[in-house]
Amino acid sequence: MTLDGVTNPTEPLEFVPDAAADAGPHAVPVITGEATAIEYPAPPDDDSVVSGDDLPTTELARVVASSNRVDSSGSDGPAATAGSTATASADQAALTPTEAIDAVGIASASTPIAEANDSNTDPMFSPPAPEGPAYEQTAAIPATTIPTGHTLGDTEELPVQYAAASIFDGADDVAEYTVQPSGGFRLRPSFVFGFLTLTTTLMASVADAIDIRTSRPVDGINVGIRTLEDFGTNLQVAGFVGATVMLIGGLLSCFGSRSGAGIAGGAGLALAGWSAMTIGLVEVPIHNAEGITRNSGADINGFTLAITRDLGWFLILAIGILGLTAFVTTLRMAGSAGRPGLNPWVAALGALGATILAVGPLIPLSEATFDLNLGFVGLPRAFFAGRLVLLGLVAFSGVVGFLSVRTYGLGLAGGGLSIATWLWATSLADVGDSPVGIAVGNLGTVDTSPHAVTTVGVALALVMLLVASALAIVDRPRR
Q: What are the residues whose beta carbons fall under 8 Å from the beta carbon of 442, sequence distance 6 or more?
């Protein structure tokens, strides 16, 4: 064995015999005793490297042997194993023998445990359950035979105590307060006719109504083009009022409102009366020009008269036709739909107000007589017919609408009073240069202010209309 680089390879190494404590075949040499300190010669002054020849041989071998000793607490080498074995042998010799523990037999489940069922010492203690009541044996129920014609599970019919009375007698109340579900928007003819009427009214307000021409100037004949405004400063707006109310009522009827259908129908009747009255006014200058031409004598030089009923005249006539058609289309919604009727006293007063309103313009003034309302010389028949048509339709819509005591009738009365109310208010306030009253006012005077009777009728009809509407809203069944 040599140590290259540490000792001189040519120098023999001293052998250290094995320890006497372990003579087994796998004994590990153990070196006991303290290691001899190795003294190294001081280096020369010339800082030359020290070689292995300068180190002591015997001491070096002991140092190498002692360097192979391993601590028994953390090494896995043979030396550590030998050291731990010797230590364990010494510890076993120092232990004191222990006494044997006697085996304890398993106790039987039926053997009671001492101090059991004690709330102070037994952690598993629970109080015993209280004893239930003692039940006695019941008697046996005798079996019964099933009658002939019956099977198992059939029950006998209960006797009828009140044969004349039904189990549920509130069907009338349910039908009265049942609100029909709304079907949403559904296009109705009244809405279509309302839109067409409003468009036609707009065209008629700007179109030429008539055109009167003569070959030369003639006294008493006013020539030129006339529009709707020339016959009354409040006629145009009156037509728009009726058409707008008709359109709104038609829109409400599209959502299933019967009162809306009545409003559209009443406004249609009002427009028909307005159309008849307006055409009667338009025919007055035509009738005057034709009368002068026919009655001209031989002393008057001949002239040519040309009368043209222009587009505006036919549009006014179309407005009346559309209004009547719209009224007819709303009759299919004139039913009550199971709702309670209106207050009959309020309806009667409203019908009375509409009647007074229609009679007021027929009262003659000054030296005029009542029969002049049917016609006289100097005015065309269309004029008198237009007045009577207007008053008749106002009375019809008011009386029939109120006395029907239905929501449709209430709307019919309201729509029928729309144009008449406008003509009454504007003529009473003298709005414009030449406003026209209801049915062109009373005969026998040139004053356009409405008669006092007419004012009472309008006021009574409007008040009863508001009262009936409020009562209808209050009495309306809730969902």
A: 360, 361, 362, 363, 364, 365, 368, 451
Helix axis angle for 235-254 and 258-294, nearest 10°, is 150
Question: 189: closest CA among 248, 243, 250, 270?
Answer: 250
Element (H, E) at 211: strand 208-214
Which of 66, 465, 11 minimizes the C-alpha distance to 263?
Answer: 465
Amino acid at the residue 99 = E
Angle in degrees, 0-180, between the axes of helices 407-416 and 418-428, rounded to the nearest 10: 30
Cα–Cα distance measured from residue 186 to residue 274, given in angstroms and rounded to the nearest whole number: 29
How many CB atoms lie under 10 A from the CB of residue 462? 18
Bridge partners (DSSP) of residue 212 are 224, 307
Which residues are paired to 309 by β-bridges? 210
What's the sign of the alpha-carbon dihedral 360, 364, 370, 376? negative
- At residue 40, does pLDDT exceed 70? no
Residue 30 has pLDDT above 90, yes or no: no
pTM over cut 0.70: no
Helical ranges in 118-215 per DSSP H: 171-177, 189-206
CA angle 191, 466, 262 (to 5 degrees): 25
Strands of the sheet containing 208-214, edge to edge, are: 224-227, 208-214, 305-309
Q: How many CB atoms lie within 10 A of CB 219?
A: 6
Question: For residues 387 and 436, what is the distance between their CA atoms, to the nearest angstrom?
Answer: 12
Q: What are 320-369's pLDDT values in tens digits? A: 999 999 999 999 888 766 666 778 889 999 999 999 999 999 999 888 88
pLDDT digit string (tens) for 255-304?
988 889 999 999 999 999 999 999 999 999 999 998 888 887 655 567 88
C-beta pairs of 113-116 under 8 Å, 24+ apart in sequence = none
- Chain-centre distance for alpha carbon 159: 51
DSSP string, 421-476: HHHHHHHHTT-SSS---GGGS-TT----SPPHHHHHHHHHHHHHHHHHHHHHHHTS
Domain boundaries, the chain: 1-70, 185-474
421 Cβ contact partners less than 8 Å away, ≥ 6 residues apart: 458, 462
Give CA–CA dist 1/16, Å, rounded.
Answer: 13
Tokens of 294: 């026919």
Q: What is the pLDDT of residues 392-414, one digit of tens each?
A: 999 999 999 999 888 899 999 99
